[in-house]
Structure formats: structure tokens, C-alpha cells
Predict the 3D structure of the following.
Amino acid sequence: MQLSLKTRFTVFIIGSALLLSLVIGIITIRDMHTQIEVAISEKAKSDLATAQEIADYMHPGSWHVVAGKLYKGSARINDDTELVDRIGRLTDDTVTIFLNNTRVATNIMRDGNRATGTIAADYVSETVLNSGKIYIGEAEVVGVKYQTGYAPIKDDSDHIIGMFYIGVSKKLADQLKQSFIAVAILSARITLLFALAATCFIPVDTWGTVSSTRAWPMNSQTINHRKVPPS
């Protein structure tokens, strides 16, 4: 069955709108993914600096180790929940302080208890403890993925004795991505509705005119073939 001109035109408009929406959606989602990852990394960097400033404010003095325990000034950090909990409340992050590669104070919970005594991943320890660099990137912390920031903790002699950790939950990034995808889908639906509506607002006379114009050459040719030369 041959489709009418209006039906074919409507299918063309909707198909074009679908293709355009698909291309824009793919580009938008790809760009959105990159921007979210950058934003989460920047939050980890900023919160790490904030956490260190809070530690200096709450416990003035240098970092040092006494009898196998980590101290900040006169405050013992091992099992100090007040510092990590305050930083966690202000930043909405997970917070951990390490003595070497072992957690000695943290707000990370595992099986209802604070995850002290657990150790950092090897690649983090290599970057921070052995190379003395700040690590910013995704890491698995007690079985959960976070966008993390680890900074070396140094004593007065500039020896690295531990690490300061901040973790931004990847759940936040996933929620932002889902929000952006929902907006992209809504935009595609609106585009399709406008495309469909546009075809409905084309006057009926237009279709008749186009049909007549397309049919006219055939009719003329038919008439010319039927014309009888004058005698």
C-alpha cells in the first residue's frame, strides 16, 4: 500500500528528529560524564585541603609518632573519632587518618564498627608513602568505590609517617549521571512532540497543492499524447 505524501513527510520529520535527538543525547551524556568526573575530583582535592586545615585548627602542632601511636600536637589520633567525624559532617565525605598504611582513625564503618586496623591499597601506598605524592583518583575502600584524595603526613623531620584520606562516594556521581540522563530523555521526547506537532500545523491545502503539482506533468503528458494533429 502506497503511503500518502503527508504520511511520508511525517515519518521523515519524526525520523530526523529521532536521529538528531540521539546524536545530541550521546554527545551530551559523554560530555556530562567527563564534567561530573572532573567535578568529583575537584571536590576530593578541595575537601582534602579543608580536612587538613580542620586538623590543624583542632589539634595545633606537628605530626609525630610516640610508642607506635600517631599524634597531632598533644592529641593522640589513634581511635580519635571526634576529628574524623567533624570533618565528615562538614564535607559529607569518608575520612581516614593512617599511621603508615594502617587506618588508626576513620568514620568508615564495616559490620557496624569503625574500620580501623585495615590497610590501604598497595597502589595508593606506593604513590603516597613511597613517592611522597598526593593521590587523586578512584579507589576501593573497604569494598566500596570512592573518588579519593590521599595526602602524605610528615613529621618535623619531613619523614612520611602516614596518610590523610578523603573519599567522595561514587553514589553522588551516579545520582548526577542519572539526573542528566533523565533530562536528556525528557528533551528528546519534547523534540519529538514538537516535530509531530509541526506536521499537524501544515494546512491541508498545502498537501493538496503539492499533490496536484506532482500530478500535473503526468496529466499534461497524457493530454499531449492524446492530442490529434490538425488535418
Remarks:
- Residues 45-170 form a domain with the Beta-Lactamase fold (CATH 3.30.450.20).
- The chain has five helices and ten strands.
- Helices lie at 5-58, 81-91, 122-130, 170-200, 204-226.
